[in-house]
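Section 3.1: Structural characterization of target chains.
Under the original work plan, the team committed to producing a structural model for every single-chain target entering the pipeline before any wet-lab resources were allocated. The record below documents one such target. The sequence was received from the expression subgroup and is listed exactly as submitted; it comprises 205 residues.
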Amino acid sequence: MQPQVSGTEGYAAEADGLFVRYESIPSEQVHAAVLHLLPNTPARVLDIGAGTGRDAAWLAGLGHQVVAVEPTDALRVGAMRLHASPAITWIDDSLPELATLAARDEQFDLVMLTAVLMHLDEEQRRRALPNIAARIAPGGMLIMTVRHGPVPPGRRMFEIAAEAIVEPARQLGLTLQLNRHGESLGAENRVAGVTWTTLAFGKPS
């Protein structure tokens, strides 16, 4: 049996329902705040915590080559079936170390973490951010969303202030380009009081 990766609690058991929920909201809506920051020519993209593959498939459809990282077997295997594409490479890897990616020693023009970082506690985030920054190519971009609000039963999440990400990112040489807070797109989450922070950082050339 696959050892459970810290932060993925609850996802395998709910995989079927998550495919329905995540795939029901188009990536263009989820990432509306950062559409102007996406590469406008074919690029190398890393999607960390790719889940059902919704965003990886969207990015591949825009002409990018995508490496999708997902540690939960039930999500990764289902996503590979649902979004089969030669433009997507799936990898079983996880934060904070990203050991498999580090061994590949690749860098990417765009790194995305959608609803991922709040699954890591403070010490794990401290370890994770340098490993994430190391995967960004010079001149590249890091885009992430962070969830705020009640934690669903069976999940592991932590409340993170934007500044707790912005300042460590600055120390790693990343430049803040967007810091936006907004309500959830999902009706159920909105009723529960869930909100999201979207952050974007550039890495100097």
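The chain has a mean pLDDT of 89.
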